[in-house]
């Protein structure tokens, strides 16, 4: 039996970084917690803890925020998928964040198109948590910030170097030799970022928890992928597993696979190694290992399953 305990990251053991991004000192965004669970992630801070550093074709992370805390407008070169683990969240997008918006609650998933400025805020009454899947091993080389975010950060002492690292001028930090501030996007570059409306984005990129759970009654609900509810090829597939989704005999796959607990508790056996996953737990299962996944108790139960594919890590918004 192989010991795979180091492939499991428990929700209660997640280590946050409160200085992960350029808006870490900006009022309204200065209480964010960023988590890098699998892969290098896109954090701009040397203080970011990485739980599992393996490159498996995609990254897993999370963001935790108290009520009224906001993540500033940014874009990615690869896919960014969120599902809500806890709380109520408003996602918004566009150059100024006013092109469209959608509210998501526990279990809902949003496959945000690449090449669009996006942000999100906790609009619930309690601390909220969203889990993230980022395409590619290097997640596209970092974050692209809206110009006003960089300007606001500078007013509060944080400068992002063109090496992708943050420097806190209020602590006396200066940019190293050969490093200059990250340039803001020009008007011509900004004009290339689409401004899709809510009605254009939501039907194609948002799936609701109970719709997915209903489809996962007898087999896995194909959520994101070539044949998914949200048809896309972002470099990984996402399924929702429900109580009756998988055969008792189990299965094997040649791809890297990550299980992410959503509701209920799940018993997972990988070639004799057995564990139970709770909501918020993450289990990275290596390829070519036989596994069984079954509910550990009665009641509502669902988990997300993310599988690596050979597709490019993200598609640009298409009208």
The stretches of 5 or more residues where confidence is low (pLDDT under 50) are none
**CATH topology type of the largest domain:** Jelly Rolls
Strand content: 35-45%
CATH architecture of the largest domain: Sandwich
End-to-end Cα distance:
50 Å
Helix content: under 10%
On the 0 to 100 scale, the average pLDDT is 94
Number of helices: 4
Major sheet strand order: 1-22-19-24-18-16-17
For the record, the count of structural domains works out to 2
Largest sheet: 7 strands, mixed
CATH superfamily of the largest domain: Jelly Rolls
The total of beta strands comes to 24
Spatial shape: globular
The Cα radius of gyration reads 19 Å
Instruction: Give the helices and strands as they follow along the chain.
Output: EEEEEEEEEEEEHEEHHEHEEEEEEEEE
Structural class: mainly beta
CATH level-1 class of the largest domain: Mainly Beta
Protein architecture, described:
This protein has 319 residues and is mostly beta strands. 9% of the residues lie in helices and 36% in strands. It has a seven-stranded mixed sheet. Strands 3-2-4-11-6-9-15 form a seven-stranded mixed sheet. A hairpin with a 5-residue loop joins β13 and β14. 44% of the residues are buried. It holds the Pfam family Cupin_2.
Which key features would you list for this structure?
Jelly Rolls, RmlC_Cupin_sf, 4 helices, 24 strands, 7-stranded mixed beta sheet, 319 residues
Secondary structure elements and their pairing?
Blueprint: E1 8-9, E2 33-38, E3 50-52, E4 58-65, E5 70-75, E6 80-86, E7 89-93, E8 100-104, E9 109-112, E10 118-122, E11 128-135, E12 144-145, H1 147-155, E13 158-160, E14 166-168, H2 187-190, H3 198-205, E15 206-207, H4 209-215, E16 221-225, E17 230-231, E18 236-241, E19 257-263, E20 266-270, E21 273-277, E22 282-285, E23 291-295, E24 302-308
Parallel strand pairs: 2-3, 16-17
Antiparallel strand pairs: 1-22, 2-4, 4-11, 5-10, 5-12, 6-9, 6-11, 7-8, 7-10, 9-15, 13-14, 16-18, 18-24, 19-22, 19-24, 20-21, 20-23
